[in-house]
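In this supplementary section we document a worked example of the pipeline. Step one takes a protein sequence of length 396 as its only input; no multiple sequence alignment statistics are reported here. Step two produces a three-dimensional model, which step three serialises into structure tokens for compact storage. The input and output of this example are shown verbatim.
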Amino acid sequence: MSFPALVLRNKADRRIKGGALWIYSNEVDTQKTPLKSFVAGDQVEVFNHGGKSLGLAYMNPHSLICGRLFSRDNEYPLNKSLIVHRLKVALALRDTLFDKPFYRLIYGDSDGLPGVVVDRFGDYLVVQIATAGMERVKDELVVALEQVLKPKAIMFKNNSAVREGEGLESYTQEALGEFPDRVLLEENGVAFEAPVLEGQKTGWFYDHRMGRSRMQSYVKGKRVLDLFSYVGAWGVQAAVAGAESVTCVDSSQFALDVAQDNANRNSVENFTTLKGDVFSVLKDLIDARERFDMVIVDPPAFIKRKKDFNKGFEGYRRLNQLAMRLISKDGFLVSASCSMHLTRENLLDVVRGAGRQVDRWVQVLESNGQGPDHPVHPAIPETEYLKTVFARVTRN
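The serialised model returned by step three reads:
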């Protein structure tokens, strides 16, 4: 099978030869292969300036990342056969890592299927497509998932903001079977319900699995405050691990109701919720002279674009500063960021600076990132986005 050619400018193939998968619009020889000759979602064969084939990619001529390489071999186009193969490879890794079928099955480029995420909740699969190239083959994707996993149901949750930049509409759609409002899962031995239909993204955030596992070693007998708690993934696991009390704070009453249901499901006591803007709630708790032995800070991304770095960095600093003021003597801070543009070193600067602002002595005990079901592609730093710092906070 032959595909239209996409020719790169002279020496623009160096990144691709070095392992990169993304092709930027300024790397294309637009004299030989004008971008306007392609339609979003087209598959192309990529050539260097000298005519050597570099593999197959799909296109979006209107995006800065105009091409995403999915195969180094031009004999393997993006179709059901290739998707089945990539699913089997990804599944083999997860079967090695986890003893139960609750994980991120496909993590985009890192699993050889750029622009698609698949979260598995046992017999239920939630799929997010972010690019026109993957949208073009979504029917083949469904058939491949059905063949490899034989799920009861598949849901497209295609409502992320990045789709707009790809010229794609947002929608939620059952692609196979019927989805319940909530699906069951287990993480670190704790049972949960995830609100797939009304919840954020796929309904659950598997990426913090390793951090939440480590957190359990710290919390026995502790008073825990879980900020931006969503449906209680951190807080409920803290309670199950023996925390004296857990307070979850979120701006969504819906999320807090699910968190309470998850606490009830695990028969934990001394579990309470607080609805409100987290910054306002923190100030109220400080005014009330409340103290906690551990404060968990896991906010949404404050830095979604590089130009927002300074404002977002200040947001993280203020948040961590307020959190530290609530930590009792020799207590613990768990500070996380899912902002790709905030590096691990930046987060350490946030924690250090917050400690100095409130005159606290901070000891960094450990740090971690996303779980292994979110593998990092070594040539795509954007695939490594999550970082979490565990710190002891005490008085000078």
